[in-house]
Design a protein that fits this description.
Blueprint lengths: L4 H4 L6 H14 L14 E5 L3 E3 L9 E6 L3 E5 L9 E8 L3 E6 L4 E9 L4 E4 L11 E8 L3 E6 L4 H6 L3
Parallel strand pairs: 1-3, 2-4, 3-5, 4-6, 5-9, 6-10, 7-9, 8-10
């Protein structure tokens, strides 16, 4: 089976034509970049004398702000959806308590936290970080309150059942 000469002819563009098309596309603004969506605002957890806790299932933003005058703030990452490798948390604890609960394999960095007289900082997250697991960087100040980072507790029955 042979092709006819008409079927074999393929329209070919010359180099000049390609340059002209590229210049027209560049000048027409067809290739302008669309603006990236604005970064979502940080999640703010502020309490004065009550207790506040993150929901069971929630999406983790890039930045969080936790301010606690005399109550308790619990940031629980055990059932949170997190697609980030690093999470920044800015804290300010007067005489209240801020608790950060993470799954095993995550890491919490408390090196940038300052504490005043009577301030207490406790980091029970000691296991090595799993590859690809998030790193939580906490910075801020604890005056006379407490900042605790720990794993989720399991009841003895849950441990025997193998609950995770």
């Amino acid at each position: 089976m042979s092709r006819t000469t008409e079927q074999r002819q393929v329209p070919a563009f010359g180099f000049d034509d390609l340059q002209r098309f590229a210049a027209a596309a560049r000048n027409s603004g067809a290739q302008q970049r669309t603006p990236s969506p604005a970064a979502p605002p940080p999640l703010e957890l502020r309490v004065t004398s009550e207790s506040r806790r993150t929901g069971d299932q929630w999406t983790v933003p890039e930045k969080l702000v936790a301010e606690c005058t005399s109550g308790k703030v619990v940031i629980d990452f055990t059932q949170a959806y997190c697609s980030r490798r690093a999470i920044d948390i800015r804290i300010n604890a007067g005489s209240g308590t801020i608790v950060v609960i993470v799954p095993r394999g995550w890491r919490v960095d408390l090196d940038a936290v300052e504490f005043g007289t009577g301030g207490h900082i406790s980091n029970r997250v000691t296991l090595p970080r799993f590859p690809g697991a998030p790193l939580i960087r906490i910075e801020g100040r604890v005056e006379s309150g407490a900042l605790k980072a720990r794993y989720a507790f399991r009841s003895p029955k849950g441990w025997l059942r193998g609950d995770r």
